[in-house]
Structure formats: C-alpha cells, structure tokens
Amino acid sequence: MASHMCCVVPPYLLDALCECSDPELREMAASTLAFGQTIQDERHEFSQGGFTDTATDHHDDDTPGPAQGIVPDYLLESIGGSGEDPELQKADRAAADAEGLSEAGMVASQSGFFREVYDMEHSAADTQLPGKPRRAEGDGPHSDPAVNEVYDNALKVLLFYQKYFNLTSVDNNNMKIVSSVHYGSRVTNAWWHHNQMKYGDGIPGKLGHYTNALDVIGHEITHGVTQFHSQIKYNGESGALNEHISDVFGIMVKQIADNTTADKADWLLGETCFMPDIKGVGLRNMLHPGTAWTRAKVTVMEGDDVQPDHYSKIAGILKNDPDGVKRDHGGVHYFSGIPNRAFALSATRFGGFSYEKAGKIWWTAVTAKEGSNPPTYRIPSTCTFAQFADVTVEVAKELFPNSGADQVVRTAWNDVGVQVKAH
C-alpha cells in the first residue's frame, strides 16, 4: 500500500499570503511554499500535466504521494489586511461534546483504538519522524496543549467513522494513528503522509491552530481512509475529488460535534485556523465556494477566494493561472469547491444531519466495489466529476429507493454545472 501526502492548506492560499502587506505572514507563507515544493521534488510525484490525470496511482508502489496541504498556496500569496470576524471567536468549536463524540463515549471506546502523539521539536527532517514520544493510548494528559488536542480530536474522528460508517481506524483493521506536532519552523500546514499526520504551528494570532480544528483533523484522517478504501489518483479532477472527499467527511465530523443539522451549519472548513489578524472566515466555504476569505489582489477571477462554484468557471482559471493549477496537481484544491457545493446542496435539501443521507450516499459511492475476480471500485482511479456524479445518483437510488433521493443529488450536480447521465 503506497503512502499518500496531502496537506490541508492549499497552494493558492499560500500564494495569496506571499503578496500580503504583513512581512511576518509573507515570510511564513514563502517558507511553507518552499518547504512543500522541496518535499514534492524529493518524492518525484509532482504531475507535469494540467487539469488532466497523469499521476501514478498511489496504490501502485510505495512512493509517497504529492505534498499538498489544507491551506492553498493562492491564499498564502495575497491575503492581507486585518479585522476580526465574529465567526473567528468559535475557537473551542472542535472541543464541543455531541452525541456519539462525547467525553463518555471517548472513554468507553478508548481501548479499541491506538493513538500515539510525538513532538518534532520544530524539525522538518522526515528522517526524524515521528519525533519524540509525548502521549500514547491510555496515557493521561500532557503538559503540551497541542499534544492533547491532536490526541482527543483524532479519537473523535475515529469514533465518527466507527459509529456512522462501521470503520475501525483508517484501514478497518485497528491501524495505529500516529501524529507529530510542532513540525518544522514557521510551517503553516497540516499533512497526511507516510501513514501518519504532521502538524506545523503556523503563526499565533494569524494562521494555524490546526491541532484544535476538528474538521482539519477529520480532513487529514480521511486522506488515510481514501488511501485504503479507494484507488482514486491525486491529480486533476480525480485529485479534486480526493480533496473533496476529505472536506466532506471533515465537515461531517464538525457538524456532529456541533450537533448542527445541514441546513443550520455554516459549512466552513478550518474556520478556527483563521485568527483575528487575517480577514477570512475559514479555509473553504463548501456551500458557497469562493467566499471564505479576502484577497488583497485579485489575479484569477472576480471575487476574493478563488475557488469556483460552477464547472463552467474551470476554463477561465486554467487560462489565467496555469502555473498555479499545475503546482496544485491540476487544481486539486482549486476545483474541489465544485463537488463540495454539490454535496452541501444535497445535504441541505435532504434536511437533518449531513451524514444521514448525503454522507451515506457519498461513503458508498467512494468505497463500493462491483464485479468479481477481482472486484473493482465503482469510482475509477481517474474519475471525473461527471463519473463521480453518476455514481452518487445511482447510489442514492439504491440506498433510498422511491424517495426522490436520486433526483435531489442529480439536481445538486446540475446546479454546479456537472451533468448527470440518464439512469
């Protein structure tokens, strides 16, 4: 099984911060970009194509996948200004108790999982991973808050997968969940890589705090789930779907922890990562892509955040920012907003909690196999948005027959410009 490296801060966000007026942010963004590129070069996994899938299937060998994080380069390149948004005061959101993810549930289920948290002490040398041990399964709290945040939030994500999708750890075989905090110096990102997670510290008061962002940890652990339960490649449209899948399950964990139904949720991913010194409400807005943060300099398309909310806008981004798309493995972070909106629209129209219908449909679509000798995934390795949409509509009809669920999903995809074939 090949390892996979995906980061929560996308390249376009980092690019954006490199052009901001804050010298500290510029330095941090530039160092994170350079660091990420170095990792990519070392892994020989950077795709040379545009918005087409030319990368090697990450199941083919043991070569680590691309070095992509949750904060986009384009945001890191040009976000500027200041101003405090009320949404940013929800810093303790990730610690909320909710049914199924309560402290009592955590204690009761603790023996079924294996977590270890290490401290890299600001080293970015992968040869030193995972770092110095700080807390292992069953240990009491550590003096370092970051250690405890990762330890507790990882369990909430594991409980989420166990309770709602009958999955025991990312491999469904009690795989140990290893996390390394304080990764690198002035690195503002979080990664899933080499079957473990790595967390940089960012800059206090500006951008960071990934260890206490439950949806970020859900996003990264889901990259592990995708690694073990899907063959989807990390490039172009299939790569954007890979990022989308992590966003979907990361946001579901957050909504459950908040006890928030789909229609009442804010659909913001990584909202606690943006602190008062940066204008923005989160890393991504899944319901309204392109509205999560403010750019000081608009370089790609109208608006602030550059994520498109409709398939028709892809061509303009490919034309106006080909280098950014290429660096982002064919737009895996840019274009994930399109399927994100389709999911959010489906979930809000279904009503109730997002995991109840939309989540079950997406989970089945991603993990289901068909045929025999050997069975194959319903989602191909080079899956396009249209192919993925087709499968979700098929699955909706199978899971919820004679309910109109398939039409809800079909309409959501049509609303973002992805046409679903007749079934």
Automatic annotation (TrEMBL):
It comes from Apodospora peruviana. Residues 87-96 have a biased composition (Basic and acidic residues). It comes from the Eukaryota. Residues 116-227 form the Peptidase M4 domain. GO terms for molecular function: metal ion binding; metalloendopeptidase activity. GO terms for biological process: proteolysis. The keyword Phosphoprotein does not apply. Belongs to the peptidase M4 family. This is Metalloprotease. Residues 230-418 form the Peptidase M4 C-terminal domain. Residues 78-102, 124-147 are annotated as: Disordered. CDD domains: M4_TLP.
